[in-house]
Amino acid sequence: MKNNLHKLTLKKALAQIQSGETTAKKIYADCFSQIEAGNKDLNVFLSTNSPTSMKQFENPETTLQNCPIAVKDNICIENEVTTAASTVLEDYKPAYSATLIDNLKLHGGAVIGKTNLDAWAHGSSTETSQFGRTLNPRNPKYLPGGSSGGSAAAVAADMCTAAIGTETAGSIRQPASWCGVVGLKPTYGRVSRYGVIAMASSTDSPGPITKTVEDAAIMLACLAGHDSKDGTTTNQAVPDYVSLLQKSISGLKIGIMYQDIPGLKIANPYVLAAAKVLESLGAKVELVNALDPKYAVSVYTIVQRAEVSSNLARFDGIRFGNDRSYFGDEARRRILLGTHTLRKGYAEKYYQVAQKTRTLFIEDFSRLFSSYDVLISPTSPSFAEPIGASEDSVMFGELADMLLEPSSIAGLPGISVPCFHDEKTNLYLGLNIMAPAWREDLVLQVAHAYEINTDWNSWRKDNND
């Protein structure tokens, strides 16, 4: 029988384990019961680890103290099936674990299961999964977003204390927004990509999806760090993100982006309302002009497809199980477009121009951050879309991630926190907060200040945080 321990935030779970009020084993069992009760309908997990199979409960003296963590199924775990939600890999068991999994286990995280995603992380709906779509736990008539839709849904449905996703364009923050949870995309290179099945190697960024901002800070501190196996990781020391949350945001300069973009009538009023909350806490908030994100859509589409065609070329059926005929339609489209883009005569016309335009976005952010400490915008142009919305739209993901792609192609950190809840549909909107490279502390600090001074987070009252 469940004891509602599955509803605990990570912070509260750690506190109760430390005080002896409960145990990690009981929390894990409660979360597993929640999976058993809801996974058949929501299709959140592709595989699970039952409480009886776990051995980590024997060593509680760690940061995460064996709390149950869900992991996106494009992240390798040694000798555990890792599918990337594609039937090409339905029987693939890696011979090694991703560095972030090693870090997670070093800090005491217990992997409760692998979550569904868009196949190969291609999409923003979780509808391209070859193992069936995931539904949004807030309202099963709607999509959870993607590609980390399973991880966001696992958190929203209280099936774990925290989860790990990956973001290439918006695949952490966008599903976090649609599922009403917190999603943190770190700076490119803050968390190792080694052992993450590559989509677009120049933008892939693993990160946490959690119930609160403080939970995200706890998780990031466990996942981040230099990795000799990933040359893109930073040598910078990992800050004490949790202690930095308490810093006042008074005096910070905050820029509001994309208020001049047509089609954001749904989300913009709530971003302006969030800006007033931040202003009441002493921040100086102004509207800013930035490069139109529609150009980032073009840049991302070209660069991502080119890198996909290269990365998926290795999956030939010799080393990984099923052959290339098992690729789904979305993967085939992206391989074809990427290969075409890189052909002689076309690479100069498209790929190189896209990379030059990418540099303009990097320079534009540099200009903005010379005047502002953080930038805010809607996370997504709209609430979660209904089931089936992505099926007839080949650009569904790019348009859903439009407001996130500029910061992703620039490699910047960002976080989505709930900023509105529609009681009629039980759906959420997210506030996207961005900062300069390596300043995850700033996005966490501003997000935490906003979260504790508003009522949009559905776990804060239950956990008295």
How would you portray this structure in words?
The protein is an alpha/beta fold. The protein has a single domain (5-247, 375-463), classed as Amidase signature (AS) enzymes (Alpha-Beta Complex), CATH 3.90.1300. The chain has helices at 10-19, 24-42, 99-106, 149-156, 173-179, 213-223, 241-244, 268-280, 293-311, 329-341, 347-369, 396-400, 405-409, 440-452, 460-463, and strands spanning 45-48, 68-72, 110-115, 162-167, 182-185, 205-210, 253-256, 284-287, 374-378, 414-422, 427-434. A hairpin with a 4-residue loop joins strand 10 and strand 11. The longest helix is centred in the C-terminal third of the chain and has 23 residues, at 347-369. The model has no long low-confidence stretch (mean pLDDT 95).
Summarize the structure.
This protein is an alpha/beta fold. It has 15 helices and eleven strands. The chain has one domain: Amidase signature (AS) domain (Amidase signature (AS) enzymes, Alpha-Beta Complex).
Quick tags:
single chain; eleven-stranded mixed β-sheet; 465 residues
